[in-house]
Specification:
The structure holds 2 protein chains of 2 kinds.
Chain A: E1 10-11, H1 30-55, H2 69-78, E2 84-86, H3 92-97, H4 102-109, H5 132-146, E3 153-158, H6 165-176, E4 181-187, E5 190-191, E6 194-195, H7 196-199, H8 208-211, E7 216-220, H9 224-239, E8 245-250, H10 269-277, H11 280-290, H12 296-319, H13 327-330, H14 341-350
Parallel strand pairs in A: 1-7, 2-3, 3-4, 4-8, 7-8
Antiparallel strand pairs in A: 5-6
Helix pairs in contact in A: 1-2, 1-11, 1-12, 2-9, 4-12, 5-6
Chain B: E1 3-4, H1 6-20, E2 24-28, H2 44-48, E3 53-55, H3 60-72, E4 76-80, H4 91-98, H5 101-104, E5 114-119, H6 134-138, E6 144-146, H7 151-163, E7 168-173, E8 182-183, E9 197-200, E10 205-209, H8 213-226, E11 231-235, E12 238-240, H9 244-254, E13 257-264, H10 269-281, E14 290-294, H11 305-308, H12 312-325
Parallel strand pairs in B: 2-3, 2-4, 4-5, 5-7, 6-7, 10-11, 10-13, 13-14
Antiparallel strand pairs in B: 1-8, 6-12, 9-11
């Protein structure tokens, strides 16, 4: 006797060859697609520059987004300014559109907490302890629900992170309380060296939402159109009281886990070569070219413009003066407790100058 | 005025803040309809509604993270962990986020949350229900750890904790939840969070304790008084940060110091207090500092728990050691 049936849908608009497999969703015209394309290029170029800065010792360990640009960019574009992002560490595409300048992202990976003091009052900073952001996002969503605001929370995670207890606990309360939150899983097939197949026996990550009582779906994470449209719908649902959604975006980590990793130790070369065939920029460019709104000269001009933008941010980053050593103390509490003032004096005496 | 117990004082403080600040919310397992397993939230859901006194799913890590997310939005959530022994799944979020949020965003976000939990033994509870691991929390920079030991201090300190802009671990000594009753005016007046309380003045020895052990410590002081020894008794109340000045001033006066805590001895908060007194009052000391503590063992199951918890006789013995020394 079957007492329940569940299904997971998969969504794609733009095939790897740049042709549409279904009509464009409403609201995404060529201008909007050109903007998504520009942002993906900008992000990819930024990513390359960040890695170069790390290689020459001017940046700490950095987590790349290469190959996963469609997710962050389309997600950020679909969000409203007053939604809240509770990210993990491959969401620069969304963060950038929400007031986080590239020089702030560099400052963060450059070892300076001030990188998380960015121009957005409510978004959370990059989250490193895996899946803790998922439960925090449910708290932000609870506050929004309590105040009866029409806003949504977006929180992201890698497919490896969905094995964490916090992820399941977050899904559970989001379902139980019908919270306005969208869980986005960047399924890039690798959690450092552990493959998607080793991570879970689940046929999809999306189905984990089913156990929590709400809908999960898969989307082609290299298709900016599909990510944008499914995000738009999930956000609308969340803002209007329809509750949570889990979106599993299927992509591929074309980069190492971070600059401290060497994926050649575990990732088959053939798999990487195949993944390059379906990456997100090429297909959108093919589509825009076929629409006759893009060509080589526009591409060249765009790359030049991106380079100038990023140069500016890199210059800002490299010229930032170190923070006073007492910053490590002065932000611990609203008021540094009387009992601990001695330690501040010790720091001033022996703390030396900041590490440049 | 009716006299109330410590746990009733907790309820009274929560009700006061719920009534006066719509940003204050109470959440946890069984805190709503059931009023909490110790009835600390009794009647609050009926009075303030299920959207302000929220029964959560059974998931402590989620409760911690949820509380942090709410606090970052400017709410003032008061989360209850049912027992300290169940709070550890929440440690990840408390340590990595609640305690760090202000610092790691350089003040852009902060976490005005209270994490309440009953702690300590002596109530014949099941396994894992009687721990005193306050030193775990006290070690975490960015947190404050507060422990009331009377109804009046429970009321005043909890009000202060809820109004604090930073995360507070509020540990409630469940052995004395209903031990004494006191008149506690419901006037909304908070007590200072970073102060130790001198409960009794004396000149021969300083007795320092917190939580449920305050009870035995005060009994010991009574007995000592009959023996002609006047003990100064201090309730530390805030174990992070420590009000070192009050402790040191007292030891400077008495020259002798006995620290009493139920938690395991090694690495306990008593060690930190002894170190502070050693650094700041060494030449006032007429005898080595004595610690009367739980043992470096797992908190025993209830058949043996009374042998673990520091007794009045042990405290008096420790005081006598300091008196005999010089």
């Amino acid at each position: 006797m079957t007492i329940a049936n569940f299904a997971i849908e998969y969504y794609q608009y733009l095939k790897p060859d740049g042709t549409l497999c279904q009509p464009l969703p409403k609201g995404l015209d060529n201008n909007a697609l050109l903007e998504l394309y520009r942002l993906m290029h900008l992000l990819r170029m930024f990513d390359g520059r960040a890695i170069n800065l790390q290689r020459v010792g001017k940046l700490g360990t950095y987590a790349s987004t290469l190959g996963q640009e469609a997710i962050g960019v389309a997600m950020g574009h679909a969000m409203y300014a007053d939604d809240v992002l509770v990210p993990y560490y491959r969401d620069y595409g969304a963060q950038y559109q929400r007031g986080v300048a590239f020089h702030k992202i560099l400052q963060y990976w450059g070892g300076d907490e001030r990188g998380s003091d960015f121009d957005n009052a409510e978004d959370f900073p990059i989250c490193v302890p895996i899946a803790s952001q998922s439960v925090i996002a449910t708290g932000v969503a609870t506050a929004i629900k309590y105040r009866q605001q029409k806003r949504a929370v977006v929180t992201t995670i890698g497919e490896g992170g969905t094995s964490e207890g916090d992820f399941y606990e977050a899904l559970n309360v989001a379902g139980a309380w019908n919270l306005p939150v969208v869980f986005v899983v960047n399924n890039n097939q690798w959690a450092i060296s552990v493959s998607r197949e080793q991570q879970t026996h689940c046929q999809t990550i999306a189905q984990k939402a089913i156990a929590a009582g709400f809908s999960g779906e898969q989307v082609d994470g290299n298709d900016a159109i599909a990510v944008h449209e499914r995000m738009r719908l999930a956000l609308e649902k969340a803002r209007s009281g329809g509750g949570p959604t889990l979106i599993e975006a299927i992509t591929y980590r074309l980069c190492d886990h971070t600059t401290a990793d060497d994926a050649n130790r575990y990732r088959p070369k053939e798999e990487l070569d195949m993944a390059w065939q379906v990456e997100p920029l090429v297909r959108l460019r093919a589509y825009l070219t076929a629409q006759k709104v893009w060509d080589d000269s526009k591409e060249e001009a765009l790359l030049l413009e991106c380079r100038k933008d990023i140069d500016k941010d890199v210059d800002i980053y490299l010229s930032i003066k170190p923070a006073p050593v007492t910053d490590m103390i002065d932000y611990m509490y609203a008021e540094w407790p009387e009992a601990l003032k001695e330690q501040r004096a010790t720091l001033l005496q022996f703390g030396g100058s900041p590490h440049d | 005025m009716t006299k109330i117990t410590l746990v009733e004082a907790v309820t009274q403080a929560l009700a006061y803040e719920l009534a006066h600040d719509e940003n204050v919310l109470v959440l946890g397992e069984d805190v709503g309809l059931n009023g909490g397993v110790f009835r600390a939230t009794d009647g609050l859901q009926a009075r303030f509604g299920a959207n302000r006194v929220m029964d959560t799913p059974l998931a402590e890590s989620m409760i911690a993270g949820l509380t942090i997310g709410m606090a970052a939005q400017g709410l003032r959530p008061v989360a209850e962990f049912q027992f300290m022994g169940f709070s550890y799944p929440g440690l990840d979020n408390i340590l990595n986020h609640a305690a760090r949020l202000r610092n790691r965003t350089r003040g852009r976000l902060h976490c005005p949350a209270v994490f309440r939990m009953p702690f300590g033994g002596g109530i014949h509870a099941p396994e894992h229900h009687s721990e005193s691991t306050e030193a775990l929390y006290a070690h975490i920079p960015g947190l404050q750890v507060v422990i009331p030991s009377s109804p009046a201090r429970a009321y005043g300190l909890l009000l202060a904790a809820i109004r604090s802009p930073d995360p507070i671990i509020f540990l409630e000594p469940k052995r004395i939840y209903r031990l004494v009753k006191q008149e506690v005016p419901d006037n909304g007046v908070a007590l200072p969070l970073e102060k130790a309380f001198v409960l009794r003045e004396g000149s021969d020895v300083t007795l320092i304790s917190w939580g449920a052990s305050m009870h035995e410590t005060q009994q010991a002081a009574d007995t000592l008084a009959q023996m002609g020894v006047t003990a100064e008794v201090i309730d530390v109340a805030s174990i992070k940060p420590l009000d070192t000045a009050t402790l040191v001033n007292s030891v400077n006066k008495t020259g002798r110091c006995v620290i009493v805590h139920e938690a395991a001895r090694s690495g306990g908060v008593g060690a930190e207090i002894a170190a502070q007194i050693g650094e700041k009052a060494l030449f006032s000391l007429l005898a080595p500092i004595q610690r009367v503590t739980g043992y470096d063992t797992t908190m025993p199951y209830f058949k043996l728990e009374n042998s673990y918890i520091p007794s009045v006789a042990q405290i008096i013995h420790a005081v006598n050691l300091t008196l005999e020394f010089s």
